[in-house]
Every structure is written in structure tokens, then in C-alpha cells.
Amino acid sequence: MKSLRKPIFATTYISLSFFLLCGCSLQQDDADEAPGPDLIVVNADVHTVDSSIPKAEAFAIAGGKFVAVGSTTEIRQLAGNNTEIIDVAGVTVIPGLIDGHTHLLMGSVLAVGVDLSEIEEKRDWLGIIRDKAQGTPEGSWILGGAWDHNLSDGVLPTKEMLDSVAPDHPVLLRDIDGHSAWANSLAIEMAGVSADSPVPPGGEILIDPETGELTGIFLESAGGLFGDAPGMAEATDPVAGIKAAVDLANSLGITTVHDMSNNFDEFLRVFEAGDLTLRVWQGARPPRVIDRSPSEIYAEMAAERERVRLQVAENSQTEVMGPLFDIGYTKLMIDGVLSTYTALMKAPYSDNPDAVAEPFATRDQLNAMIAAAHEYDFPVAVHAIGDAGVSWVLDGFAASPGKAGMQSDRIEHIEVVTPDDVQRFEALGVVASMQPHHATCCVGNYVIDHIGRDRLPNAYAWRSMLDTGVPLVLGSDWPTSPLNPLIQMADTIHRETRIDGVVRPWDEGNTLSFAEALYGYTQAGANMTSWSDEIGSISVGKWADFVILDEKLPDNVDRALENRQVTATYLAGQRVYPD
Ligand SMILES: [Zn+2]
């Protein structure tokens, strides 16, 4: 964290108050008494996401907050002796981005190690691994992965490939689905694994039938054979992992996340160290085994929340940086995913009619958990992907006596939803939390086959939600899809997927405009938190979270958005990327 600055101005101004400020400062003879704002940004194409001034050229910041938004001429007049001036030469500036669904700790291994997601060619994987090895002390683990051999030639990689680029580092890389681990010879040696090692149930060590040697691929639970290897504990330190994930998020323009990690103490350690340069709105998960009444469980979770809130409140960082950490809601799950036929559907899967998805809880259990969460003032977020799963959750919300006071209840993913249930989102006041890349990655890949073309209009129905008046929050679900919000927003604009070998848009009626996508990635996410008046737009009185892009976006933003880069990210007026 940068050094704390003393606020110069009172922190709340009504819009256009800079005229008053300006008048005052011009009347000062002694420049020292009129230091002006801490920072002004001028010559910008500012998308404020504030409907009272949607576009602006400049803004001023004092005490970590926006104190004026207007034209370059107006804002320049505010500058005092001590004001830092950033002239961005016409590029686009947007509010700090808010990712509505992340798993930072789960993804941190990609931030610390190598990230091969979405990369098709194996030689490109190996180039990234070689580069990582060159920057890593010999003998230290190289982890991460997210490789997908189906994007490449469909053939599993081998330990020899890793040996060729990183012979002196133990390397262990998970595939994109987490079902396979790929290790090099040094990793296998350090873990003491051989063809004769006992394999945990459900796992398999792949052996080359010709040589009898390990191939380097370990399926399912066999990947766990490396857990106790020397150096592994240090390599997977959660605090270092969270810090790396926070830095990655900042580099992509993200200043706030709704995180599903449920690791309060690890996040608090990052916060206490002054390294949490990201506002984290975290979801609390009930224990996996429900052995007490839901009320007892949520009473305990409420006490835990209180403990965390007290610890955060005792730290003065939030006075200068604004809110940084809170347990804001609870996260539940009702079904699985479409790819493995585990999402709960109202009618059978089109290409596998015998598949019967098992719900993760009975209706009674789900309803009891929702009601108990509300009783203890937890808004509820429920993972529901199939149209029946979504219906169950809506039923659970409708049945909860405490629903009326919970405007931030939400359903996560909603990959298929019937039109009547879209109406129920609106009627019940439930937020739709959706991840655009889950659609574009997979519609042509398996979704059309699994749900059939007749149900396709019910899939990833972003615009149907908005047109029905349902708040739509966008996010990534990283590490299952790219953390980069510019990719996710571009996906909503082009809605393209590979169908029959050709990349093309599908169901274009459900695309979003850039303004709608940007709202979904900023203010809509803020509205789900208790910080809705403090973040989410470039507005006078809010904490100065903003992002400078590398170019001015065109009037009609198209998929080229995904190629834009973030030049700088600011949190409460302090630069957190590059740091
Ligand atoms: Zn998730």
C-alpha cells in the first residue's frame, strides 16, 4: 500500500461543486493555502457509468475520492501547486471494474505459476513454461496449468516435453478441468512416485505400454500424489497466492471482486499486510456436512462475520482506501454443470436422455438453508445452471419469510432459464449473476448438443434479463474462464462461438451494448454490496477507482475491445497497477 495521504478537501461534494472550489482557489493569494486536488486526470474519454454525466473529459481527486467531474478546461482550473496532473491524450478511462464472481484462491496458482488457458499450440505452452523456468530459482516448483489438449492436437502431453524446457525445476500443471495433472521427471522423482505407487481410489497413473515408463500424466486423485513433495507447501502458500491474484486482477483493471473463496483469515492476512489493493466482497459457505439445524449453522457463521468485521474495522487503512473486505453474503450450490450432464434440467438432455442429474440438496434442505441465511441477514447466492435448478432456487427464495428484506439475493450462472422464470427473477427481486465467456466458449462446443437447438434461446439470456428489468451482474468465475473483463465484455457484444467449425454469432437478440456490459461490470456489481454509494462509477463523492486504457474506444465498441490493454489502475486515487 502506498503512504497514506491526508484528505485535503471534505470528501463529499455535490455535482458541479468544482465551480465553487475553483472560485475559492482563485481568490487565494498564497498558493500554499490552495494546494488543489491531489490528482487530476485530463484529456480523457471518460465513460463515467453515472447517468447524470455519462461522458466527461476530466476529473479531480482529493482524499482518495472524486471531487469534480467535468471538462478538461474546468478541471485544469482546479489544479494547485501540489496537484499531480495526468494528461492521458484522449484515451478512454472507465470506472474500476467489479468482477461479480471469482475464486481468487483457487485461481491463484495460475497467477503464481503458468497460465496456459485458451492457448492452442503445445509449442506455445512450452515457450511459456521455459520463460517461467528462466525467472524461477532452480529446484522451485512451477505450478498452474489450465492446459487443454483438445484445443491442440487432442493428444495428452508427456513428461519429456516438460523436461525439454524445464529440466531443473519440478513442474506440475493441472488441465483446464482439473481432472489431469502433467508432471516432469524431476517432479516425479521429488514426489517419490513410480509405476508401483499405490493410487488413491478413482485415480490412475498413465504408463506407456511400450516402455513401461510413466508418461507424466496423472488422472483424477492420482494428481494428489504430489501434495507432500518437498517444497510444495511453500509453493502453494495461500497468502502469497492471494497477493499474486490481487496483482493480476489490478493489472486487468479490476478494483473489486465478489469472491467465493471462503478463506477469511488468509484474506485478512493480506489485508493486514497492506497488500489487499482490491475490494473483496466475500461469500461465506456453510460446512459441507450439514449436521446441525440451518439456524445453528448460520448463527455460527454470523458470529464469524462479526469477528471479521471487527478485525477490519480496527485497521485504519479503510479510512484512506475505503471499504476493502467484508463477508457480504452466503454461497450455496444446487446443481453441477451442463458439460457433464450434472445441471438440473426440466426436460431430459437432448443427446443423453437417460442422464439424471442429482441435486446437491433436497428442496426442503435448500429452502431451510435460504430461510436460515435470511434470518441471520445473509443475502444468498446460489449456483444454479440448469433451468430446473434455477426454478428450485427461485422457489426457495419465494418461500423464505425473510426474502422481502433481501434485495441482493442472486443466482449464479443461470446457463439455461425458461421465460416464465425470467419473469420471476423480476417479481421476486433476484439478481442474475452471469459470466459471458461460459457462453461463447461452449455453446458450439457441447451446449447445443446437450440441450438441443429448441432450448437454445433460453441459454445465457443476458438481454432477456435486462429487458425484463432484472439486475444483471457480470463476472468471470475465474479460473474457469478468463479473468480479463475486456474479454468478458467483448463476449457480450459479439456473442460468437464455434458452431460446426465456424466462429459466428448465435442468438444475436441476446447481445449487449458496451454501455450495458460496462454497467454490468461496474455499478451493477456495486449495487449488490453495501458499498453501492461508494464505488461503481466515476461520480463526485465516490472512492476514486478508475482504469486508463491504451486507446480511445470507438463510438460503436466491437469485439476489438478484447485486444485493448489496461495502462493503469487506480484504487482510491492511488495507482495499484503498474506498481
Ligand atoms: Zn464459481
Indicate the topology.
Layout: H1 18-27, E1 39-42, E2 45-47, E3 55-56, E4 58-62, E5 65-70, H2 72-76, E6 84-87, E7 92-95, E8 97-102, H3 104-112, E9 114-115, H4 122-134, E10 144-147, H5 159-165, E11 172-175, E12 180-183, H6 185-191, E13 204-207, E14 214-219, H7 232-235, H8 238-251, E15 254-259, H9 264-272, E16 279-284, H10 294-313, H11 317-321, E17 325-333, H12 363-375, E18 380-384, H13 387-399, E19 410-413, H14 419-428, E20 431-434, H15 436-451, H16 462-467, E21 472-474, H17 485-494, E22 496-499, E23 502-505, H18 514-520, H19 523-527, E24 546-549, E25 566-571, E26 574-577
Parallel strand pairs: 1-6, 2-7, 8-15, 9-10, 10-11, 15-16, 16-17, 17-18, 18-19, 19-20, 20-21
Antiparallel strand pairs: 1-4, 2-3, 4-5, 7-24, 11-12, 12-14, 13-14, 22-23, 24-25, 25-26
Helix pairs in contact: 3-8, 8-9, 10-12, 12-13, 13-14, 15-17
The chain binds zinc ion.
What tags apply to this protein structure?
single chain, alpha/beta, disordered N terminus, 26 strands, 32% helix, binds zinc ion, eight-stranded parallel sheet, 579 residues
